[in-house]
Amino acid sequence: MLSKIETIEDNQGFHTFISQQNDAKDFHTILAAYEQERSAQAQEKAPEVNVLFSYKLEPKKREVGDFINFFTARYNTIKPMLQQRKELQNLTSINRLNQKREKEQVAIIGLVSDKQETKTGRIMMTVEDPTGIIRVSTSQNSEDYAAAKDTVLDEVVGVVGKCSDKIIFANRIIQPDIPVYKEMKKSPDEAYALFMGDFHFGSKVFMKDAFEKFISWIRGEQGNDTQKELAGKIRYMFIVGDLVDGVGEYPGHENDLEITDIYEQYREFAKHLSRIPSRIRMIVCPGNHDAMRIAEPQPTLYKDFAGPVWKLPNITMVSNPALINIHANKDFQGFDVLLYHGFSFPYFADNIESIRSKGGQQRVDLIMQFLLQRRHLAPTHKSTLYLPDAQKDCLVIDKIPDFFATGHIHRVSASNYRNVTMLSCSCWLEKTEYQEKRGLDPQPARAILVNLQTRKVKILNFNPQENEAPA
Ligand SMILES: [Fe+2]
Ligand SMILES: [Fe+2]
């Protein structure tokens, strides 16, 4: 079940660098010096990773039939996950229900196409499979009433119940979920992965000072001895989208931008990324603020806008979502990391009572768990913008990851659900009116550091406003 990972919030030792540097040099002078030094250094090679899934853009006109095929593809991928469940042993297809005796126990797998709550609190759903449609009724006395209440449109569920005329009275509503026996893999050697995102570079409220502290730390130039040692052991850095703030994202956006040219936003941000030691493999997916289509799956960042980022020698560009295997060798199978920017999250925070009542967007951990249980990153049609692919629903979580990393909500969290480490990355923006309108309460300027050998998580806080002065 969901458990909080014991995290250490590390504020100490990051505070002195900026005050020293600001006295001496401006930002651009520091950057120029780094570039010189980098070209002079022999570049240490970053580890290779294996991209298991990254969406490739196939331009094609979409037709109404694509939506039907898309939902069929989703059903066909999720159905085998549910078929393994022992509760669904008496499985039948919906068109065969009329052959069953009154009150006979039946099990079906279907996609929820409608859901209502009656005045007496009964949950009435319409469930479809490729052979037919059936109504499903769940009363408050049912064992899985809470699960029925949390059911969302377009998710694929298993239903167990008693058959009657054109209706099933359900006692079990079953999600595909993550098996309880999933192992917690640990790397045989000590290595670290860093999870970050939502830099929104180019915004007037981008936290330059905090970002400078981060860069100087990862280069081993800032922090106490332990922190420097940790920085030296980082092999992977994941960036979960919203690299830049973009342009024209909302009315009046230009007033909030320090850099109003999208090309320059990427060019300048790439210069900063180039200061990250070349032994660290950076894996980057896009977010909704990046210069590209917003519909998911989002392909890799477009080369014509983000060319300077593509040119970095230690970068791996992937789509949103994407699945990447890291740190594998002949003796160890490595870790599978699922990246998803998180555009669907606000929908579930606002519309699922069990999440909304516990804090909504403040509880990214609950949203992530909810999606893992449904094995889908955005099950409800309305929860995100997407392009239906007739062959494959790319937002299905078909392979269970070891790490599930997201951003978009701009809050930091680390938790564990059945040995999947769920990480929600921080942002690098001071709080703005726009964020307040979106109901965001950001926790900016944190980096999540994971020890791959122990699976322990540390949250490093680079926010100058929150760092304590040295004693
Ligand atoms: Fe963002
Ligand atoms: Fe975002």
Shape: globular
Q: What is the mean predicted local confidence, pLDDT?
A: 90
Q: Give, in spatial order, the strands making up the sheet with the most strands.
A: 1-16-17-15-14-13-3
Q: How many strands, what sense, and barrel or not for the largest sheet?
A: 7 strands, mixed
What CATH architecture of the largest domain do you see? Answer: 4-Layer Sandwich
Q: Which regions have little confidence, pLDDT < 50, spanning 5+ residues?
A: 13-25
Rg is 24 Å
What is the fold named in CATH at topology level of the largest domain? Purple Acid Phosphatase, chain A, domain 2
- The structural class is alpha/beta
- How many domains comprise the coordinates? 2
Ligands in the structure? Answer: fe (ii) ion
Q: Beta-sheet strand percentage?
A: 15-25%
CATH class of the largest domain: Alpha Beta
First CA to last CA: what distance? 41 Å
Range of helix content = 10-25%
Gist of the model:
The protein has 471 residues and is α/β, with parallel strands linked by helices. Helix content is 24%, strand content 23%.
Task: Give a verbal description of the structure.
- Strands 1-16-17-15-14-13-3 form a seven-stranded mixed β-sheet, with helices on one face.
- Residues 13-25 have low confidence and may be disordered.
- It is of the alpha/beta class.
- The relative contact order is 0.17.
- It contains twelve helices and 19 strands.
- The protein starts with a strand and ends in a 10-residue tail after the last strand.
- The chain folds into two domains: 2-59 and 181-461, Purple Acid Phosphatase, chain A, domain 2 (4-Layer Sandwich); 85-174, Beta Barrel (OB fold (Dihydrolipoamide Acetyltransferase, E2P)), CATH 2.40.50.140.
- The site of one fe (ii) ion has 8 residues, from loops.
